[in-house]
């Protein structure tokens, strides 16, 4: 009797690499304490949402100085201004949630900011779809 050999093909299972979360910190004005954004922190080429210990006036213009990773991973400085479009006190904390629309984000910085926000898992729901 002939022995029959069988071979079972091993399936290659590709595992997703664990997401590398880029640290994000927000400092409002000259305050010494830096606000650590929570899960709801969002940033994208359209604007930013963050928490502040103090209420910010609607339509207030703010200057932003950000360090954003370029394609090679090296950080670059990005300066732009934005306007507060909404500020609301959170029910479960003493913090205010602030929504800011960027006014003059340089076009060349837009793609870098979008990539950095994705890697930090902080991209806004609108940009997440594009």
Strand order of the largest sheet: 1-2-5-4-3
Overall shape: globular
Query: How big is the Rg?
Result: 21 Å
State the helical fraction: 10-25%
| Strand segment count | 5
**Biggest sheet, in brief?**
5 strands, antiparallel
Low-confidence stretches: 5-20
Mean pLDDT: 74
The string of secondary-structure elements, in order, is EEEEEHH
Structural class: alpha+beta
End-to-end Cα distance: 63 Å
Question: Approximately what portion of the residues adopt beta-strand conformation?
Answer: 25-35%
Number of helices: 2
Record keyword descriptors for this entry.
alpha+beta; five-stranded antiparallel β-sheet; 2 helices; 130 residues
Molecular structure report:
There is one protein chain. This protein is α+β, with helices and mostly antiparallel strands. It has a domain at 42-128. The chain has two helices and five strands, in the order βββββαα. A hairpin with a 6-residue loop joins β4 and β5 (96-102). The longest helix is centred in the last third of the chain and has 13 residues, at 107-119. Residues 5-20 have low confidence and may be disordered.
What is this structure, in a nutshell?
This protein is of the alpha+beta class and 130 residues long.
Please give the structural blueprint:
Layout (H helix, E strand, L loop, with lengths): L41 E3 L2 E6 L8 E9 L5 E15 L6 E7 L4 H13 L5 H4 L2
Antiparallel strand pairs: 1-2, 2-5, 3-4, 4-5
């Amino acid at each position: 009797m002939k022995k029959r050999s069988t071979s079972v093909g091993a399936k290659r299972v590709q595992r997703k690499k664990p997401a590398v979360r880029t640290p994000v910190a927000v400092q409002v004005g000259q305050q010494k304490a830096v606000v650590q954004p929570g899960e709801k922190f969002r940033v994208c080429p359209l604007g930013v949402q963050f928490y502040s210990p103090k209420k910010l006036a609607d339509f207030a213009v703010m200057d932003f100085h950000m360090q954003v990773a370029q394609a090679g991973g090296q950080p670059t400085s990005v300066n732009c201004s934005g306007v507060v479009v909404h500020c609301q006190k959170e029910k479960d904390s003493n913090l205010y949630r602030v929504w800011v629309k960027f006014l003059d984000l340089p076009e060349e910085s837009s793609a870098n900011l979008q990539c950095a926000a994705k890697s930090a898992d902080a991209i806004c729901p609108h940009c997440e779809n594009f």
